[in-house]
Amino acid sequence: MKKVRLSTSPDRAALAALSLGDVVYLDGTVYTAREGVYRRVVEDGEALPLDLPAESGTNFHCSPAATVEPDGSYRVGAVTATASFRFSKWIGPWLERSGATLILGKGGMNPEDYRNHFVRNGAVYLTTVGYGTGALLGRGIRRVKDVHWREELGLAQAVWVVEVENFGPFLVESDLAGDSLFERENAKIAAGLDRVYEGTRPAVMKRFGETDDRRDEMI
Amino acid sequence: MIAIDSIHRTALTLMSKAAIEIPDDYLDGLRRAADAEDGDLSAFVLQAMLENYDAAKEDGRAMCGDTGCPRWYVKLANEAQVEGGPVALEQALRRATADATHNIPLRPNRVHPLWRTDHDNNVGIAAPEIEVAFEPDGDWIDLTTVHKGGLFGTDYRMLFPSDGIEGIKRFYLDSLVAFGKRGLACQPAIIGIGLGGSKDACMVLGKRAACLRTVGDRNPDPKIAALEREFIDLGNSIGMGAMGFVGKSMVVDCHIEVGYCHTGGMQMSVHAFCLSSRRACARLYGDGRVEYRTDPMWFTPYQRRETVEWPPAAVVAAVA
Question: What ipTM describes this predicted complex?
């Protein structure tokens, strides 16, 4: 597997050189933003609390395990991404507003999000590994540069701006063409599932989702 | 009399141990999975996790940045006496949860479901959960904290007797395939299955099966133990490994717990613990001694008793 050191404000050539499944370590500045921030910026039209993408082109879907010391300084322990596919409804307008070209998260996003939004904005998705390499990622953090909207959104949803060095590992989940590593792996696994299910039986009573006909008998 | 200070102090230590130290039984299980894994990507992920456990311990840092939803399992031996009584005990555990969230630090995950109010300390309405059980003979209390993830990897279904083992297998596979895609179950994990009870009891049994039994432990009912073994192999035959990549490491162990249910039903729940399997336990004795361990020893003959009376532990051990 190929290992790559990448800037958190990568140029297009650096992104184009990435292949699905490459192992990536980052240098520069990343910031956290998730549903609380997206709602404020995309839905409420609030101004961004930092200069993007000038300060960073890398949005991390993360709430750090961090604390505020009595002197106002910040202490970050482990960091792990949160599942990204829940942010689908905001990601298009967010990529346009923030100019982010790297999204770091957990588990990737819908293939439609890559095709409709990531490709258009020249963005690539990197997934954390594990999940739960929180301690390794924590070692890549040099310092907390700033925390925005801490009062408004709480520690977990606030915008943490973090300087990082050799921050990883991450895996390339989507590329500039909008192809997805998870989608590729899912398709390979799906091919063998009929054999695994041999000797099992569907439940005698169906649930919604297994039928969309409301007239069926269900539990 | 068990001093309330000792309970608070021990609970703080347990919060750290759970967040930072991988339990040996799970670590050994994961090493075996890593040795057997031949999928490139899955093998890379497992190797990264093994390095991560070392980094966490060396740095005194939580293994995973999503430090889950801390909860407590308390077992009171019949003669145990707690200074201040059960209310003081609950308060000490809530205080330790809040203090440890700041000190370690843990991620303040707990918010109000509607207003998203965050106390930044993992304490709130009905949080942390504190479950209590009893045990005959003794003056000790057992404290166990489990930091299980709070989003994915759990499902419930009302099955019926006519669904049979084939139906149970189907729902087991459905759950693993659904949770496993993109690795949302944080597999390979200890899988817990609850069978029977009522809907709530079934969920509780399955969650305890995942979180309160160690890798290698088998249900004392030989037929259920055989099913557990079969389910480990079945889960690992899906073709899916860590992060939902092609591989064969999905299940580190499978534990099944049963409860008597309505004659017409066969409730089933499935729960995936995670790659950090965060649990830590301690026994506090009346004379002040505190002994730490990673095996909750929750499912005793008394907890699994089938009728009004129960077999003494010594007799069960002799038969086994």
Answer: 0.90
